[in-house]
TrEMBL record:
GO terms for biological process: peptide transport. This is Peptide ABC transporter substrate-binding protein. Residues 23-42 are annotated as: Disordered. Residues 1-22 form the signal peptide. GO terms for cellular component: ATP-binding cassette (ABC) transporter complex; outer membrane-bounded periplasmic space. Residues 87-476 form the Solute-binding protein family domain. PANTHER family: PERIPLASMIC BINDING COMPONENT OF ABC TRANSPORTER, PERIPLASMIC OLIGOPEPTIDE-BINDING PROTEIN-RELATED. Its main location: other. It is found in: Cell envelope. Residues 23-32 have a biased composition (Polar residues).
Length: 556
């Protein structure tokens, strides 16, 4: 890449989302008027949306769940953002980065009219402060592993060999940010649109201390919306137009209301009564509404898988046994799961990298198509592996399955339980159901055996799904020298050889999913939903935040 070249990055348009809509009676009076949006006027009609679970934190370094990423990506704004086609476009940055010839220095100019909601200017130091805060292991940021192998000294900081102050990011002046890289990272600009890389107002954050990001009163915003009526226990909140946002004239809605809704029956009834403008449906409700003119299936790049923890409480778990892992993997009928239980357009998947997410840089062929199917259903083979496992373990096999408490989550867990026990006599599944944030904490601590887990891509590259087995993102205690060598080669040896890097990543996925059966991909998610006529401008994204609302509104 030549010096001074502006980086441009265009991505495939597939979609995602876990937000929709939910309202209450207090919204109805606000809904009585609507200024027509086609003229550029703002809509005074409240758009009622939903999330399937609570927002865990509004501190961007503690991002760990989809509702939080969505909220953060509408209340804050980073250097870059995604447009409706998932093209990287400037946000707080004035333009795409200037990248040095060796790919190791990024120079980014910031716009000088971006402000925080308290009136402070958004400066380069706000990014330096936030990134060093994220990199510092003592803060236990959920995404601090993103510093490993990217920004200069990030690896040493993550490994506690250097101070976070030595991270290779510098504010040259108030509106110029310089980033030094450990090595060229082809997807780095797309990473800068992800919420953990958003800025933080150092003075405000320091004043609030541990309370920062825990409630509406403890947030200062630089994005299109302010967050009102929210704390970490809230089952509802509002996004209200931020008057200090530099592009406030283009924000289409004055107010968007959210409700947390976990039961599909409640979701459907609220939509039918007019209190909900987008209703996420699964199972029977999705089947029954396929012919409804309001129904649509939004394809996403999120992959649900079974995570098998090989060590629990520092002791080998049942999944340390390879034959148990293979028995479970070959026993599952994923097609039946997506057609009969989900019924929302989700697709069974036989690899970890989703379809239509990323293409071969040389040929343009889709990763999933080129890598092929791995570990397809084979009941006979599954039974053989279970018999081997029973001999090695001296008896029948009992497994605890961790599930979230959403309606759809519980039905998926029940399906897995029923099918495994039916297909594999001698295997017993006990389901443990907990709220989303409890599930995340149990997985982070390694206190589980088997879990239905979702991973949505943070940036557009296979590495967002793969990583290495020694990454802090790995919560399964899986270790493989062969796999790690392939990931290391893709990250370093072949960093500037796109085709060899691509082939190496395909080989790594095969080791992870087929040879070692470290996890079991289940399905690539779609979102079946009813959308009220007049709802426009919600943008769904293929990586990072699943949805943004700057251009969203509802008209009469």
């Amino acid at each position: 890449m030549k010096k001074g070249l502006k980086q441009s990055l265009t991505v495939l348009t597939t979609v995602l989302l876990l937000s929709a809509c939910g309202g209450n009676s207090s919204d109805k009076s606000a809904n009585s008027t609507d200024k027509k949006n086609e003229t550029g006027q703002k809509s005074a009609k409240v758009l009622n949306l939903m999330e399937a679970s609570e927002v865990g934190s509004m501190d961007t370094i503690f991002t760990q769940d989809e509702p939080s990423v969505n909220a953060q990506s509408n209340v804050f704004e980073g250097l870059y953002q995604l447009d409706e086609k998932d093209t990287i476009i400037p946000a707080v940055a004035k333009e795409l980065p200037e990248i040095s010839a060796d790919g190791k220095t990024y120079t980014i100019k910031l716009r000088d009219d971006a402000k925080w909601s308290n009136g402070d200017n958004v400066t380069a130091n706000d990014f330096v402060f936030a990134w060093k805060k994220m990199a510092d292991p003592k803060n236990q940021a959920n995404y601090f592993f993103l510093m490993d192998g990217t920004i200069l000294n990030g690896t040493e900081i993550v490994n506690e060999e250097k101070s976070a102050d030595e991270l290779g990011v510098t504010a040259i002046d108030d509106y110029t940010l310089e980033i030094k890289m450990e090595k060229p990272v082809t997807y780095f600009t797309s990473l800068l649109a992800f919420s953990p890389f958003f800025p933080q107002n150092e003075k405000f954050v320091t004043e609030k201390g541990k309370e920062y990001g825990t409630s509406s009163e403890n947030i200062v915003s630089n994005g299109p919306f302010l967050m009102e009526n929210w704390d970490q226990s809230s089952m509802s909140w509002d996004l209200v137009e931020n008057p200090n946002y530099y592009d406030a004239d283009k924000v289409k809605s004055e107010k968007i209301h959210f409700e947390v809704l976990k039961e599909t029956n409640t979701v459907f009834n609220l939509y039918e009564s007019g209190e909900l403008d987008v209703a996420i449906l699964t199972g029977d409700f999705a089947k029954q509404n396929k012919d409804n003119p309001d129904y649509e299936a939004v394809q996403r790049s999120k992959v649900y898988s079974l995570r098998m923890n090989q060590k629990r409480n520092d002791k080998p778990s049942i999944f340390a046994n390879e034959n148990v892992r293979k028995a479970v993997a070959y026993a599952l009928d994923k097609k039946s799961l997506v057609e009969n239980i989900l019924a929302d357009g989700s697709k069974d998947i036989y690899g970890y990298i989703p379809k239509d997410f990323v293409a071969n840089p040389e040929t343009g062929e889709d990763f999933r198509k080129e890598a092929g199917d791995l570990v397809k259903t084979d009941e006979k083979l599954a039974k053989e592996y279970l018999e081997k496992a029973k001999k090695e373990l001296n008896g029948d096999v009992t497994i605890e399955l961790l599930s979230k408490d959403g309606d759809g989550d519980k039905k998926v867990a029940e399906f897995i339980q029923g099918q495994l026990e039916k297909t594999l006599p001698g295997l017993k599944i006990n389901v443990k159901t907990v709220p989303l944030n409890n599930s995340i904490e149990l997985m982070k601590k390694g206190d589980y055996e088997l879990s239905v887990s979702m991973w949505g891509p943070d940036y557009q590259d296979p590495m967002t799904f793969l990583e290495s087995s020694v990454s802090t993102k790995n919560k399964t205690s899986y270790r493989s020298e062969k796999y790690d060598q392939l990931i290391d080669d893709a990250s370093n040896k072949y960093a500037n050889e796109p085709e060899k890097r691509w082939e190496t990543l395909i080989a790594a996925e095969k080791v992870l999913v087929e040879e070692d059966v470290a996890l079991i991909p289940l399905y690539q998610q779609a979102r079946g939903q009813l959308v009220r006529p007049g709802v426009e401008g919600i943008e769904y994204h293929n990586f990072g935040a699943t949805s943004t609302y700057k251009n969203a509104f509802i008209k009469e």
